[in-house]
Design a protein that fits this description.
about 325 residues; alpha/beta; six-stranded parallel beta sheet
Length: about 325
Amino acid sequence: MKEKICIVIVGPTAVGKTNLALLLAREFNTSIISADSRQCFIEMNIGVAKPSPQELNEVRHYFINTHHVNEEVNAAIFESLSLQWCNEIFQKNDVAIMVGGTGLYIKAFTEGLDEVPPASTQIREQITANYNTHGLSWLQQQIRVADPLYFEKGEVQNPQRMMRALEVVCIAGRSILSFRSNEKKERPFKILQIGLTLPRPQLYERINQRVDAMINEGLVQEAQSLFAFKHLNALQTVGYKELFECFDGKISSEEAIELIKQNTRHYAKRQLTWFRKDSTVQWFDASEIASCRAFANDWLTRTIDQNQQNSNQ
C-alpha cells in the first residue's frame, strides 16, 4: 500500500500560494483543498481572491463555493470536511494539495482541535453587533475584563479570534485557552508543509496592487450587493467591512480603499507570525517556484522510498 501524502502550502495573502498549488496539482494530477475561511462562500468572490473560473475548471477544488454567507463555518467543521475530502482524493491519487492562509484551519487539519464549547448563535450575534457599533477597542476591553488570560497571551488585534474567545468565556465561564491540550492528533497520511514568503516591501506592494485590481474588477459593487448581510460573521472581513463603513457615511471611498490596503498588510503580518511558529514548515521565497517544485518531488521520492524500505523489513 502506497504512502498517502498531503502537501500543504501556507503563507501571507498575495504571496503567490494559488500559483504554486496549481503547479503542483498539475504535476501530480490531483485536486486542491482550499484552506481559506472565506473562499467557501458563494456570494463572496472578488474580495476573497478566488481562483479564476478557468483555474477552477482545470483543477478540482474543494471548499470553494460550498456555503452561503448565512451558514456556520468554523475550524472544527473544516477539520471534519477536509479529512473527508482528503480521503476522497486518496481513493484515486497518492498526493493531495491544500492551500490557504487561514492559520487555524491549517492547524485543525494538520494537528486537530481541542474540544471547545460549540458556538451560540444568540451570543455570537450580540457580540458581533456590539463590535460593529463600538469597534475594536470595545472588544479588547471586554476581553481584558472577561478573559485576562486571553488578553495576555491571545491575538488581541484579531477581532474574529477575540469574538470567539468572548463567546466561549460567556458560555463556559472560563478562558478559551484553558481548553488547549497541546496534543496533536495523528493523521493516517504524511504531511509536507511549504511556506511562501517575500521581502516585506515587495509583499506590501503586491497587496496594494491586488486591492487596486479588486476595485477595478468591481469590489465596491460586490460589497453593495452584500450590504444587507454586513452583520454576519462571514462579512466581518477585510475588503468588505471598510466599504460598509463607507456606505454608512463614516468614511470616504478613498479612505476605505486605503484602509483595505492597510488592514490587509496587517493581516499578512499576522499570518506570517502564526505560520512562523510552526517549525515543520519549509520556507521558500515566492520567486523560487522551481526550487519548491524540486523540493516537493524530492521529499515525496524519499518518503516513498523510506516507506518501501520499512515494508521490506
